[in-house]
Amino acid sequence: MNAETTFQTHRPRLLALAYRMLGSRADAEDVLQDAWLRWAGSDTADIRDAEAWLVTATTRLSLDRLRTAKRERQHYPGPWLPEPLQVELSSDIASDPAQIHAVANEVSVAFLTLLEQLSPDERAAFLLKEAFDHDYRQIGSLLGHSEANCRQLVRRAKQRLQAGTPRFQPAPAQHRQLLQRFMDAAQRGDSPAIQALLHANAAQFSDGGGIVTAAIRPLRGAERIGRLYWAIARRGAALLAQLGYVNGELAILRFAEGRLASFTTIEVVDGRIAALYSVLNPEKLPPLVTHEATAASL
Questions:
Q1: Regarding the domain delimited by 172-297, which CATH topology (the fold level of the hierarchy) does it fall under?
Q2: Using 50, 70 and 90 to split pLDDT, how confident is the model at 231?
Q3: 95, 138, 232, 263: which is deepest, by most CB within 10 A?
Q4: What DSSP character marks residue 167?
């Protein structure tokens, strides 16, 4: 197997690691390009375990990129939310809701946003242990820490993540129903109906990147969130909306002139929406086109 074939064989696993580390597809792709250049420039014939070499290189490159990104994100205009790895229309996704729901939890916007709270080393140690099943000796060698320190990193990461994760996940059918009802109420600007779907202290996080209009602070409280969508609908600013998938997670996709303008995912606690995550930054949105726009162009 030549060097390029070997790299392409491991590429999906490397991309999954880099994306979870960085929360950005563009940054993950840049890391993989750097990893490929290092791999192509090395004497691969002398490398016994290609996967271990590539995972090590990808992790270290991701750590360097993440440390830089964390400094940059401190000056980001408003909440920083992850750039999606994949956005799909409803008809483009597999039909097993339970399987989709399980996979989506690993790369959901809510979970990736929680990962942002960890230090770079905590994030790397946690992902290598929990998502990629490395042992502590391997993690210690890769990160330059003792096994004991790596155990501490993973333990702290778990504690911080568990504190921000709902104890019980809703059934896929309940999740879909809540999202559908919220989408319909938001399109109408029906503030009372929206508030009935939300926890009293629900939070709306909106990422416009300073490029499009979005709240620069999280909006908290069911009443305030209800008023926001009422005002949007009253101004006639509500966009065409439909359900789709972001990283395999159900989401509301909104379109302007047939092009994806934003998406929203939700976090459900005790049968109500506790958090909404909306990405409006056009630099984070793929050039997805609605079926309606596609049909109109034929």
A1: Nuclear Transport Factor 2; Chain: A, (3.10.450)
A2: very high
A3: 263
A4: S
